[in-house]
Design goal:
This protein has a 7-stranded mixed sheet with strand order 3-2-1-4-6-5-7, with helices on both faces. The protein is globular. By secondary structure, the chain is α/β, with parallel strands linked by helices. Helices cover 45% and strands 14% of the residues. Helix 12 packs across helix 13. It starts with a strand and ends in an 8-residue tail after the last helix. The model has no long low-confidence stretch (mean pLDDT 94). It folds into 2 domains: 164 residues, Spore Coat Polysaccharide Biosynthesis Protein SpsA, Chain A, CATH 3.90.550.10; 181 residues.
Length: 369
C-alpha cells in the first residue's frame, strides 16, 4: 500500500499565525483531494486540531490524531506506518506542495511503486516532502523530531538510494510566512480555495507587484540575500530579464544548529554591525533596485532571538508591534528604505522566489493587483 500523509499542527495563537494556519489548512485540503485522485491509498491527515480535522475529512481523507506530546514527527510516522501496514509512503507538511498537481503526485506514486528501495525528497538537507520505500527502513535510523532531516537519515543510516525531485515552484514552495502566502496568491495555478482567503495585500501586495515588474524588466537589478541554493540561482540566471546580484550564505544553518550555537556568520551581518540599520539599507539600495532578504541569517549572526510574533511583525514592516529594540530599529529602516523589499525566511529565497518569477511571466502582477 502507498500511503499519503499530511501533517498539520497549529503555528501559534497570534493573529498572523492563525491566518497562516487557515491558509495551510486550505493547502492541505487541496493536496489531500489531489492525492486521492492520484491513486494514493490510504490518504491520511495527521492532526489534533478540530477545525483542520473537519476540513481534511471533507476532502475525503481519514484523520489520525497525533499521540506524542510534544509532537514528534518520526514517532508519529512510524506509528501510522505500522498501524496501517504501509509499504510505501509520502509524508508532507500542510503548507507545502500548494502547486503540486495530480499528475506530479501520480508520478511520485508510480516511481515509489516501481522501486524496491528509494527515498525521494524536495530537499535532501531540509525536506518538506519525503517519499520512501521500504518503510521498514525507519527501524534503521534515529527517528527525527521533525521532517527536515528524514531523507538524509534514510540515505546515510538506512542506505536507501536518494533522489531529489526536480526543482520547481511546485516542489519548493512551503507557506511559512505572510510573504509566502501573498506571492502564492499571484500564481496562476494557486488553488481556488487558497486564492479566496485573506492574505497580506495591504502590507505586502504593492511590494510583491513591484518586484515582479522588476523581474521582467531589462537593465534593472534584483538583490537576493540569504540561504540561496544553486538550483534557484541557476533558474534566476535563465528566467529573469533583470540582472541578479546574489549573496548566498549559511546554507544548512538550521540543520547544522549554527543559529542556536551562535556560530552563524554573514558578510551582511558584519556590515550591519559596522554601519547600523539606516546606513545598512542605504547600502542595499545601492546594490539593487529591489531585494528579497532572508533575514533569519542576519538575526542569527547578531544573536537576536525574537519571538515568532516579532519575526512576523518584522516581515510585515510593523515596527511599532515589536518590543525587541534592535529588531524594531531594523524593521523601521527596512520599511523606509524606498525600494521594493520583502523580508522572510529561507523559503523567500527559494520556493517563493521561484513562484514569483513564474507568476511574473504569466502576466501578473497586473491581474492580481
Amino acid at each position: 500500500m502507498t500511503g499519503f500523509l499530511v501533517f498539520f499542527g497549529r503555528g501559534g495563537t497570534g493573529d498572523v499565525e492563525r491566518r497562516l494556519d487557515g491558509i495551510r489548512v486550505a493547502i492541505g485540503r487541496t493536496l489531500l483531494r489531489r492525492a486521492i485522485e492520484a491513486g494514493f491509498d490510504p490518504v491520511v491527515a495527521v492532526t489534533r486540531d478540530d477545525e483542520a480535522s473537519a476540513a481534511f475529512s471533507s476532502a475525503g481523507a481519514a484523520v489520525d490524531e497525533s499521540e506524542t506530546q510534544p509532537f514528534h514527527f518520526g514517532s508519529e510516522l512510524a506509528r501510522i506506518i505500522e498501524a496501517r501496514r504501509l509499504d510505501r509512503v509520502l509524508a508532507i507538511g500542510a503548507g507545502a506542495g500548494a502547486l503540486l498537481d495530480v499528475e506530479q503526485l501520480r508520478a511520485i506514486r508510480i516511481e515509489l511503486e516501481s522501486s524496491d528501495a528509494l527515498v525521494l525528497s524536495n530537499n535532501y538537507y531540509s525536506a518538506d516532502l519525503v517519499a520512501f520505500t521500504p518503510t521498514s527502513a525507519l527501524r534503521a535510523i534515529a527517528l527525527p523530531a521533525a521532517d527536515n532531516p528524514l531523507p538524509r537519515l534514510l540515505h546515510q543510516q538506512a542506505g536507501l538510494p536518494s533522489r531529489q525531485l526536480v526543482r520547481s515552484s511546485a516542489t519548493l514552495l512551503d507557506v511559512d510566512t505572510p510573504a509566502d502566502a501573498t506571492v502564492l496568491r499571484r500564481h496562476p495555478a494557486c488553488p481556488r480555495g487558497v486564492a479566496q482567503l485573506d492574505v497580506w495585500e495591504k502590507e505586502l501586495g504593492s511590494r510583491v507587484d513591484a518586484l515582479m515588474r522588476l523581474i521582467t524588466t531589462p537593465e534593472r537589478e534584483l538583490l537576493v540575500a540569504g540561504r540561496v541554493g544553486a538550483p534557484v540561482w541557476t533558474y534566476l540566471e535563465s528566467q529573469t530579464a533583470c540582472r541578479v546580484r546574489m549573496l548566498a550564505e549559511e546554507r544548512g544553518m538550521q540543520a547544522a544548529g549554527r543559529d542556536v550555537s551562535g556560530r552563524a556568520r554573514t558578510a551582511l551581518g558584519f556590515l550591519y554591525q559596522q554601519v547600523g540599520p539606516r546606513a545598512f539599507f542605504e547600502r542595499m539600495r545601492e546594490l539593487g533596485d529591489g531585494m528579497l532578504f532572508d533575514t533569519r541569517v542576519l538575526f542569527a549572526h547578531l544573536g537576536w532571538r525574537p519571538t515568532a510574533a516579532e519575526r512576523f511583525a518584522s516581515d510585515l514592516f510593523d515596527a511599532e508591534a515589536i518590543a525587541h529594540p534592535a529588531l524594531r530599529e531594523f524593521t523601521a529602516a527596512a520599511r523606509d528604505v524606498g525600494m521594493p523589499l520583502l523580508l522572510g525566511g529561507q523559503a523567500l529565497v527559494s520556493g517563493v522566489l521561484w513562484t514569483m518569477v513564474e507568476a511574473a511571466w504569466a502576466g501578473h502582477p497586473e491581474e492580481a493587483a
